[in-house]
Amino acid sequence: MTETVTELSDDVRALVDGIVGRLAAEPGALLPILHAVQDTLGYVPKAAVPQIAQALNLSRAEVHGVVTYYHHFRGEPPGRHVVQICRAEACQALGAEALLAQAQTVLGCTAHGTRADGAVSLEPVYCLGLCALSPAVMVDDKLHGRMTAQRLEAIAATWSTA
Ligand code: FES
User: Fold this and answer.
1) Residue 62: enclosing H or E segment and its boundaries?
2) Class of domain 81-157
């Protein structure tokens, strides 16, 4: 890993410092810190890994391994809109895989990717807690049950192109 802390802007570095300072003393602090960083910035900057590792007395590889192990954590800023499609069992049984394939066409980006214009990221996830209304999708923190490609296209059509 070649990233250094100096690649972070002063604001982001101060923000990560604040989160680390608030949570580092807690048992198992790494995950809460990563969640807090992502909740605040929308992703976990690669350049923040050394800073977090140093604060927790972990290696960079350990922190990087956790960030990359959990699909929840993003290493890059997401698009302006985030579409999460559940691929867990109940949703799979009701067509989630086909929906994910259709979503890639409808949204114009690949799973785990962000469209070139930065408008949308498409993220497969595992259970959104809406199993009774499968297939379930989260669009910008709003849950939608019984999603179809047509409904997803209609939602995307409401997004500003700015
Ligand atoms: S399995 Fe998809 S929301 Fe639970």
Assistant:
1) helix 60-69
2) alpha beta
